[in-house]
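pinned: reference chain
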Amino acid sequence: MDDSRNRIGEMFAALKEEKRAALFGVIQTGDPDVETSLGFCRRLLSAGLDALVLSVPCRMPMLSSPPVVRSHARALAAGTTYTDALKIIRTLRDEGCDKPIVMAVYVSVLFKVTVSVFAKAAAAAGADAFIVEGCPADRSSELTPQLRRHGMRRIRIIPVGARITRSRQMASPEGDITALYLHGDAEAAAGPIADLRAVSSLPICLGYGAASPAEVARDAARVDGVFLGAAFTEMIEKDGAAAIDGMERLVVECLPALSKKQ
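pinned: its structure tokens
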């Protein structure tokens, strides 16, 4: 991987010219199995996702909704590990995918594998960045430069309920953070979005609960990127591999809702 290239930055710059928000799709590696996950990624990227977020299963996904916890459990029961996510990324790159690919990983998994081993392997596979979930604030500031030394960027999570002083700290320049991900209740996000705009020029993303074109339009009007994830998880839980048709349809229906043109 050419670690001087920033696919995520390139994507946001191009979409700013187009006056629309980016659409990120979140897929749990290994739910219901690895090969099906790869198929989901192929179809959804072809349907129009601007970027892919590939989640690595964790035994204790902290502060996650019950459907997400069950998704992690199904992936682990299928024997999925972080190396399966790397294989999916490598396959997509070998097939010519040049869109941004982000790995979402819990800090417990990252530290168990070790930051250096995980980051080097992710960079070699063709990943662009990490979203590190469950990272304590006192460890977060040291994590970004560690990742960057090994060729990886970071999209930093900021809770919707974060205090303004903490938001300022989390939005400060630090290594190579390529975007900010505001996670939580979208209805309560107006204040935090304004706070972050005041202290950072980085793109801001919102998610992960948008589940309809109307909700995507609501979020796209306020931020630079929208995450689709919860809806996919619920579809997969209900229909397994057959969920792909509904997932693909949702992506296609949400694309017009990303426009910021008046």
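why pinned: The first strand starts at residue 22 and ends at 28. The mean pLDDT is 88.
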